[in-house]
Design a protein that fits this description.
Layout lengths: L3 H15 L3 E5 L5 E4 L2 E2 L6 H7 L7 E5 L4 E5 L5 H7 L5 H7 L4 E3 L3 H11 L4 E3 L5 H11 L6 H4 L2 H12 L3 H24 L6 H14 L9 E3 L19 E6 L11 E6 L6 H20 L6 H18 L7 H7 L26 H5 L26 E4 L2 E3 L2 H10 L8 H5 L6 E3 L2 E5 L4 E3 L8 H8 L2
Parallel strand pairs: 1-7, 5-6
Antiparallel strand pairs: 1-4, 2-3, 4-5, 8-9, 9-10, 11-14, 12-13, 14-15
Helix pairs in contact: 1-8, 9-10, 11-12, 12-13
The structure holds glycine.
């Protein structure tokens, strides 16, 4: 955990921003995998971690704004628990580490909230993503599960987003730590790739590195020779000469700060000229985007800049044609890049996505587009120093999408479908790094993972 003053200060700022009432932040509970006692690996709720820090099951955090008091409700370990799980510090000992003096058994949270409701005080709560906590809130607040989304507190959402978006020095240090593991995960994948090996042999080794370093994956590994499928979690193919392997993976630090990188490289260890052509367009797009990132600029404009670089490179290869700015404005590039340039990152790999993408990524000034491709951009708003985000352009040849657009004659003034067809079977290329926005610009977090054609070919020789 961080020093308790960090959690105290975060709670103080949040209470000042929400102003009145009670803030309710439930922690997560164990979730059964295939029978009640066999649970998934426990992952604490990120908002609970941010404000209360305790990485333990079945806790409820409450901030009473009106009386300026914070509480943690949870049960001390029973004798049965000690027998199966070993001795544990008491709830009050743990809570002290988060700077919370007021603790009580879990069920007393019900009495606390019922009393507050009977006094007509506002209970602020966030959108919930787990069934167990939705059911708990239904009981606690006497609001039907399907009515919970309508009753969430937008004041609380905005307050949390404001705070969590700007990373403090202690969070950046934690992110830097996790980047070391990320480097090892990706370079191991590069060194292992060769014809004849299963994708799952590499994904297993990569996941093993994360676990051995004390973290868990920040999302299920995307590791595939079919990189045109954006989130491909199938790892059963055998790598073949001539293919490219796309590896999009990240891990969490002990305090659950995420990493998220993508590299794409040839199975043979040597790029063909066709692979090099496509790869270098994606690389130029990524570098141009990173170069332009600074406080005050909107990430939507960075996305469009990166898309112009993609479209212009594809025009040089005669896959696209015509005026590039017009093509991007109309969304023609989205045939090759049907996703956003990046997203916020922190305690969640898509930071705070549970609170609603538009609250996190957009505001009154920058609105979400509704055009295929640009609409999928999770982060559009103006950047501030302290934001951490990914930059991850790609080029994909998705047969079903190419078929559909060609049949409909979509953007035929900008796309040479005959030439595009020749790339069916090529797969996809994505390059992704994690970026910290600084006072004057930005910096790529962590030790650089090989990225140029030369760097990748060099490390793959090893
Ligand atoms: N890197 C996986 C994702 O951003 O969804």
């Amino acid at each position: 955990m961080f020093n308790k003053t960090i959690y105290q200060s975060r709670r103080k700022t949040l209470k000042e921003s929400v102003k009145k009432g009670i803030i309710l932040i439930p922690g997560n509970v164990d979730v059964p995998m295939n029978y009640p006692a066999n649970t998934y690996h426990f992952r604490q709720d990120s908002n609970f971690l941010y404000f209360f820090g305790l990485d333990q099951q079945k806790l409820i955090g409450i901030m009473d704004i009106d009386n300026d008091k914070d509480y943690i409700f949870g049960d001390d370990v029973s004798l049965d628990g000690i027998i199966w799980m070993g001795p544990q510090p008491s709830i009050s000992e743990r809570s002290e580490k988060a700077g919370v003096k007021n603790t009580a058994p879990y069920n007393q949270a019900y009495d606390f909230i019922k009393k507050a409701i009977s006094e007509k005080r506002t209970v602020h709560f966030l959108p919930q993503y787990r069934a167990e906590n939705k059911l708990m809130l239904e009981k606690l607040l006497d609001i039907r599960v399907d009515e919970l989304p309508k009753n969430v507190s937008t004041d609380l959402i905005r307050g949390v987003v404001e705070l969590r978006s700007v990373k403090g020095p202690e969070e950046i240090a934690e992110l830097e730590k996790v980047m070391e593991t990320a480097y090892e995960m990706h370079t191991t994948a590069m060194k292992m790739a060769k014809p004849g090996i299963y994708e799952r042999e590499i994904s297993g080794a990569v996941e093993g590195i994360a676990l051995a370093k004390g973290g868990m994956l920040s999302f299920p590994i995307i590791l595939t020779v079919n990189g045109e499928t954006l989130h491909n979690h199938y790892h059963g193919n055998i790598l073949q000469d001539g293919q490219m392997l796309l590896v999009d993976t990240g891990t969490e630090s002990e305090l659950h700060y995420a990493s998220d990188h993508t590299r794409t490289f040839p199975v043979s260890g040597k790029f063909t000229s066709k692979q090099k052509d496509i790869y270098n367009i994606v690389l130029r797009s990524q570098l141009r985007a990173i170069d332009a990132i600074k406080p005050g600029i909107s990430f939507k404009s960075i996305h469009l800049l990166a898309m112009e670089e993609i479209a212009s490179g594809l025009r040089d290869l005669e896959l696209m044609k015509g005026d590039i700015k017009a093509a991007v404005e109309k969304g023609a590039h989205a045939l090759f890049m049907p996703h956003g340039l990046g997203h916020m990152m922190g305690l969640d790999v898509h930071d705070m996505e549970d609170l609603g993408e538009n609250f996190v990524g957009y505001d009154d000034e920058v609105k979400r587009a509704d055009q295929f491709g640009t609409a999928f951009l999770r982060l559009g708003r103006k950047l501030k120093a302290g934001y951490v985000l990914t930059v991850e352009p790609g080029i994909y040849f998705i047969p079903a999408l190419i078929d559909k657009w060609e049949k409909e004659g979509l953007h035929k003034e900008h796309i040479n479908y005959d030439k595009v067809r020749k790339f069916i079977g090529f797969g996809g290329v994505r390059i992704e790094d994690d970026i910290l926005v600084t006072e004057n610009g930005c910096r790529v977090l962590g030790k650089p993972i090989p990225k140029t054609v030369e760097e990748i070919e060099e490390i793959m020789k090893k």
